[in-house]
From TrEMBL, chain A:
Belongs to the Rieske iron-sulfur protein family. It comes from Streptacidiphilus pinicola. This is Cytochrome bc1 complex Rieske iron-sulfur subunit. One of its GO terms (cellular component) is plasma membrane. Iron-sulfur subunit of the cytochrome bc1 complex, an essential component of the respiratory electron transport chain required for ATP synthesis. The bc1 complex catalyzes the oxidation of menaquinol and the reduction of cytochrome c in the respiratory chain. The bc1 complex operates through a Q-cycle mechanism that couples electron transfer to generation of the proton gradient that drives ATP synthesis.
UniProtKB/TrEMBL annotation, chain B:
It catalyses: a quinol + 2 Fe(III)-[cytochrome c](out) = a quinone + 2 Fe(II)-[cytochrome c](out) + 2 H(+)(out). The keyword RNA-binding does not apply. It comes from Streptacidiphilus pinicola. InterPro entries: bc1_cytC-su, Cyt_c-like_dom, Cyt_c-like_dom_sf, Cytochrome_c_Oxidase_Subunit. It comes from the Bacteria. Heme c 2 binds at residues 152, 155-156. The chain crosses the membrane at residues 240-259. Heme c 1 binds at residues 59, 62-63. The cytochrome bc1 complex is composed of a cytochrome b (QcrB), the Rieske iron-sulfur protein (QcrA) and a diheme cytochrome c (QcrC) subunit. This is Cytochrome bc1 complex cytochrome c subunit. One of its GO terms (molecular function) is iron ion binding. It is a multi-pass membrane protein.
From TrEMBL, chain C:
The keyword Translocase applies. PANTHER family: CYTOCHROME B. The keyword Transmembrane helix applies. One of its GO terms (cellular component) is plasma membrane. Its EC number is 7.1.1.8. This is Cytochrome bc1 complex cytochrome b subunit.
Length: 355, 267, 554
């Protein structure tokens, strides 16, 4: 019986739509806009107690901010700066107490102002929605006509269109005057000329170990080892050290003669000691992630990988050409020396570069 | 021998070897540990002999019975005691399985046993020797920093956090590595790391680098002044942190600001 | 400034208007003085009670604005201590691991700010974190504007301003990252040298002029300093003001809903609600960033060491917003053309071009879409992303590409942290560079279509109530409740455009009509945007009526 009742018409799903009038429809057959719903009050709007509670909460935020500012100033005075001062803060680790204290107090003092203001707006300021009309941005046709008429009048009075001589010379002058500015930039730097083609290496220049500052004998460079070298005449105290080391830095490795696949590369070395530019041919990072078992050298910046046993050929990554090799030999005391400059420019490729 | 190598690939072989190794290790340790002070004055040849026994159990299957090397393990002739002390002392050897790179693991031998194996391997051919303490202490931190950035940071990262190499290989983190092991690694060039013999990086240079790395990887001497290190791996983790936590918190704040305050009565 | 003032403001207002004639408040008098000179009353009349709609995503732009202000405030502080000079000095300061090391004055002063100026480290970290948040927020803000179609007429120009702000913000960030002259930033400057050199014809000249000679020279840091603190921020400030003026002038967009039309804007007034909310938000943003700077280290330059061109650290990456360009360059194969004594370094130059392309598509998209749709009307009601499947798909495709490139830019870290091969990750990114965006587009579009279908279903059949009923003949059904009028209106408020149709190929006189190629392309694209495969016809009132009036069947 009861289940029969339940099955009466008005409990069927369709009934849910049908009764109650159905949706309101506009003349052109769309669902009509019911308009802005009526405003409903919040608790704080109708309950003075709730409003007072909200007021106290807002005030608490502002008070908290004041306290944090006092704490900030106190931290500034109390904690000492410098790398010798540190304190363990869980779970962050060992940190500078000054930075931690100043940051947290500043953070709280600012955040509390914001939180107070937003809470104030959300609970106590009116949340009634208002409607503002928009006005089309485009001008009315009358205004448009007026503007065009004014413009034509002005243009006519100036004679700009009619007096071609004035117009053309003025355009010429305006076009030329920025040239002065362009010219002024000429002294920003020198012309490239052949500067990128050469390095500081010259025939007979000894290779200097960058770590020890000593000349390098062939026997110093063992199979599997990695040695960095710079020209004998270069010192860290030189004024142009940075510019020169950016091109002259060398990487020395020694391979078993049988492992060297590239014949030319082998003859440019000395008893298996090979000297390659340390500057990547891609964009110039100091490439030096040497894997001694594979003889691969990897660039940490973009992973260009070169095979030092095969003339430093590119085997992976974005570099376009092999690392330049410096031809080396020994002088009469057995120290490694350059037999000349690199035969190709070191570092990243450029338009004028030729091989 | 042939029998052994034939059974080497048996599924249970590794287990058998491991159990055997553990039993032998434990037994040897029990036998040797109490008398370690006495064994200090034992003759060099006894060291070598004990080392050989350990070697034959734990290492010979890959490196050959006399350290001559096999298809899966390089020859140990001439690698010196320093290489053994590093490889076994950091747990890299004995290796679990061949791969792009043998990672560090739990050390399974006592220092006494490592010394014995080192003595045995050193007897196979002259090579770098385990350094004494005076060789790796007393370096200059700032000089070491400069040397570290020239020779090491390209693989191990500025803070010694490690980094990627090609084809799945990597430079490990240096945190927690002992001074002695750092010295040995520089001297011997384990796995794909190049070696830095004294002719390349003088003993003083090595001391300096060790001083710098020890200083840098210890948060007591090198605190992270600005807060969490975020792994000390540069801008990638900083960016991730900024997106997730900083921007995340701010979007949370925006949602709070724009959310409608609950109405008094709920229909 | 207490809540008491607010409570009684109503009475006060009344009080003023009555007593105003006899004696004026000091506040009123000074306001009169300013109005007499600047005419502020007319401005205030239009703007004091200006209406802003409430939606969390409309606050994203404010995060950008406030982090930009924070960057300027902290940046000015930093300039008081920073010395943008590449002159070499030997460090004898308080940080032991650098003592006796040669470094530039720029690096030394940045170290001193970190260790010897009280609060200097905090300000440096706030400056840097704020920069990271600034660009991230701009990107998210831009996504919101894109996916809701807020860039349509009349806001295309404001989209361009925003685009320029993003572009300049990124570059200014890059330069700021370069200034301390530490090992990481120097590597970035070196990369830039390589990128400039790769340009055909002009590369070497530009490089020499920018660096004042060969890399690194002595000029790049001071020059970047001027550009970083003066030139770019100046331009950005101008663009920002223009951007905000246009937001005020156009009035804010709003989502469809009851009472919201193309001709109005519904929300709350600037004074007091938005003054409190937006003003408060500034402090929230500043507070959060200050707190992050207290707990998380950013750019620990002392750990990197000073720059030397022969030194490098692995994990050499730019800040995240340049990460996608890093990805572009890392996944690029090493192509190079050498001919007639010249070298074209495609391995660098192609990524440089693609970098530009990824930005140009952002800049031109509103104009492209405007051309395809041929829509010349103003739009102030926002699209729901599902109702514009092609646009949404394109946006997601762009983001997918961006994320793939970010992963490519961090390939070494993904390799070490996920125990993968760096070569494998690079190859995966190379393939995904082409496949990823296409797949993302197709999936997103289908997803949007699915959501449109669901909306249609909801309108026609109502929402599921969760109540199960058994019919007399034994069938079980779930009771659906009809959507309220507000929902019906909201879900059908969007317009569905029909694709542009080309005129018949032959005109009424039987003469072949000439249709330009551009027109054909446009018709095709329009069909892609609005054809049946990219929109589900929204339910009509008739369909609805038919379904709801029918009895006994569903």
């Amino acid at each position: 019986m009861t289940s029969q009742d339940n099955m009466s018409e008005e409990h069927l799903p369709e009934a849910a739509h049908g009764h109650g009038g159905g949706p309101v429809v506009t003349k052109d057959g769309h669902f009509a806009d019911p308009g802005l719903p009526a405003h409903e009050p919040r608790r704080t709007d109708i309950d003075e107690k709730a409003a007072r509670r909200a007021e106290r909460q807002v005030a608490m935020w502002f008070l908290l901010s004041m306290l944090a500012t006092v704490a900030f100033i106190a931290s500034y005075v109390i904690f000492k700066p410098g790398p010798t001062h540190h304190v363990y803060v869980w779970p962050i680790g060992n940190v500078a107490p000054l930075n931690f204290a100043l940051g947290t107090t500043l953070g709280v003092s600012l955040f509390a102002i914001g939180a107070g203001a937003v809470h104030w707006a959300r609970t106590l300021m009116s949340d009634e929605e208002h409607i503002a009309e928009r006005h089309p941005i485009e001008a009315t046709p009358a205004v448009r006509e007026q503007v065009f008429a004014d413009f034509r009048q002005g243009a006519k009075e100036s004679g700009f269109g009619r007096r071609k001589l004035i117009r053309n010379t003025m355009i010429g002058a305006m076009a030329m005057v920025p040239l002065s500015a362009v010219v002024l930039f000429r002294d920003l730097g020198p012309l490239p000329e052949q500067k990128l083609d050469t390095t500081g290496w010259k025939a007979g220049m000894l290779l200097k170990n960058i770590n020890t500052g000593e000349p390098i004998k062939a026997s110093d460079v063992q199979v599997g080892s990695l040695t960095f070298a710079m020209p004998q005449d270069l010192s860290e105290d030189d004024e142009d050290f940075q510019v020169r080391i950016a091109k002259d830095a060398l990487m020395l490795v020694r391979l078993q003669p049988g492992d060297i696949k590239d014949k030319k590369s082998a003859t440019w070395g000395y008893q298996g000691v090979l000297a390659f530019s340390k500057i990547c041919t891609h964009v110039g990072c100091p490439i030096s992630l040497y894997e001694q078992q594979t003889h691969h050298v990897l660039c940490p910046c973009h992973q260009s990988t070169f095979d030092l046993s095969d003339g430093a050929r590119v085997i992976f990554g974005p570099a376009g050409h092999a690392l330049p090799q410096l031809q080396i030999g020994v002088d009469n005391t057995g120290n490694l020396q350059a037999l000349g400059d690199f035969t190709v420019p070191v570092g990243p490729g450029f338009w004028e570069r030729s091989e | 021998m042939k029998k052994l190598s034939a059974r080497r690939r048996h599924p249970l072989a590794a287990l058998v070897v491991l159990i055997f190794a553990l039993v032998v290790t434990g037994g040897l340790y029990a036998a040797l540990a109490p008398t370690s002070s006495a064994s200090a004055d034992a003759s060099q040849s006894l060291q070598v002999e004990e080392g050989k026994r350990l070697y034959q159990v734990g290492c010979a299957s890959c490196h050959g019975l006399n350290g001559e090397g096999t298809s899966i393990g390089p020859s140990l002739v001439g690698v010196g005691s320093a290489a053994v002390d590093f490889q076994v002392g950091t747990g890299r050897m004995p290796a679990q399985q061949p791969g792009a790179q043998i990672p560090k693991k739990k050390v399974i031998y006592s220092q006494g046993q490592i010394d014995q194996m080192a003595a045995f391997v050193a007897s196979l051919g002259a090579g770098p020797v385990v350094p004494t303490e005076s060789q790796y202490t007393g370096g200059d931190v700032s000089k070491g920093g400069e040397l570290f950035r020239t020779n090491c940071a390209q693989c191990h990262n500025f803070a010694g956090a490690g980094g990627a190499l090609s084809e799945g290989k990597f430079a490990p983190s240096l945190a927690g590595t002992s001074a002695k092991h750092m010295y040995e690694a520089m001297l011997t060039g384990p796995q794909n790391m190049p070696s830095f013999p004294n002719s390349t990086l003088s003993e003083q240079n090595k001391k300096d680098i060790i001083a710098y790395v020890t200083h840098t990887t210890d948060s007591n001497t090198n605190p992270s002044y600005g807060g969490m290190t975020l792994g000390a791996i540069g801008p990638v983790s900083e960016g991730l942190f900024g997106w997730i936590f900083a921007l995340g918190a701010l979007i949370g704040a925006a949602i709070w600001i724009a959310a409608r305050t609950p109405k008094a009565k709920k229909s | 400034m207490s809540t008491h003032e607010y409570d009684s403001s109503h009475e006060e207002q009344i009080g003023h208007s009555e007593a105003g004639v006899e004696q004026k408040h000091l506040g009123e008098k000074s306001a009169d003085w300013v109005d007499g000179r600047l005419g502020i009353y007319n401005l205030a009349k239009a703007n004091l009670r200006k209406i802003f709609p409430d939606h969390w995503s409309f606050m994203l732009g404010e995060i950008c604005l406030y982090s930009f202000i924070i960057i300027i405030l902290t940046g000015v502080y930093l300039t008081l201590f920073f010395q943008p000079s590449m002159g070499e000095v030997v460090y004898h300061g308080s940080y032991v691991p650098l003592q006796g090391i040669k470094m530039s004055e720029a690096y030394k002063s940045a170290i001193d700010i970190s260790f010897d100026v009280r609060g200097g480290l905090l300000i440096r970290q706030i400056h840097h974190w704020a920069a990271i948040v600034f660009v991230a927020a701009m990107l998210v803000h831009m996504m919101r504007v894109f996916f809701t179609g807020a860039f349509r007429k009349p806001r295309e120009i404001n989209w361009l301003f925003g685009f320029l702000l993003l572009f300049l913000g990124m570059f200014d960030g890059f330069m700021g990252y370069s200034l301390p002259d530490d090992l990481l930033s120097g590597t970035g400057i070196r990369f830039m040298e390589g990128a400039i050199l790769s340009m055909p014809l002009v590369g070497t000249y530009l490089q020499m002029f920018l660096y004042g000679g060969q890399f690194p020279g002595n000029d790049i840091i001071p020059r970047f300093f001027t550009i970083h603190v003066l030139l770019i921020p100046g331009i950005m400030l101008g663009l920002l003001v223009a951007h905000l003026i246009l937001v005020f002038y156009h009035k804010h967009t709003q989502f469809a809903g009851p009472g919201r039309t193309e001709k109005n804007v519904v929300g709350m007034p600037l004074m007091p609600v938005y003054m409190a909310k937006a003003g408060g938000f500034f402090f929230l943003v500043f507070g959060v960033i200050a707190f992050v700077s207290a707990i998380a280290s950013v750019n620990p330059i002392w750990a990197y060491g000073p720059y030397r061109p022969d030194q490098v650290s692995t994990d050499a990456q730019p800040d995240w917003y340049m990460g996608f360009s890093e990805g572009l360059i890392r996944i690029m194969p090493g192509w190079e053309i050498r001919a007639w004594g010249h070298t074209l370094e495609l391995g660098v130059f192609i990524p440089l071009m693609v970098f530009g392309l990824m930005f140009i598509v952002i800049a031109i998209y509103p104009f492209l879409e405007g051309w395809i749709t041929g829509d010349k009307r103003e739009h102030h009601i926002l699209d729901r992303p599902r109702n514009a499947p092609v646009r949404t798909g394109l946006g997601v495709a762009w983001i997918t590409e961006y994320i793939i490139l970010l992963v490519g830019g961090g390939n070494d870290l993904f390799a070490t942290h996920l125990h993968l091969s760096i070569d494998a990750i690079t190859w995966a990114c190379r393939i995904l560079f082409f496949v990823g965006p296409v797949a993302a587009f197709m999936i997103t579009k289908r997803w949007c279509m699915g959501l449109q279908r669901r909306d249609k279903d909801k309108i026609l059949h109502g929402r599921e109530t969760g109540t199960i009923k058994r019919l007399p003949h034994g069938e079980f059904i779930e009771v659906h409740a009809q959507l309220p009028q507000e929902e019906l209106f909201r879900l059908t408020a969007h317009e569905q455009q029909a694709p542009t149709e080309l005129p018949p190929a032959v005109d009424e006189n039987g003469v072949k009509r000439k249709v330009s190629r551009a027109a054909k392309l446009r018709a095709k694209l329009s069909d892609g945007y609005f054809g049946p495969q990219s929109q589900i016809a929204k339910p009509t009132v008739e369909e609805h009526a038919e379904l709801t009036s029918g009895h006994g069947h569903h």
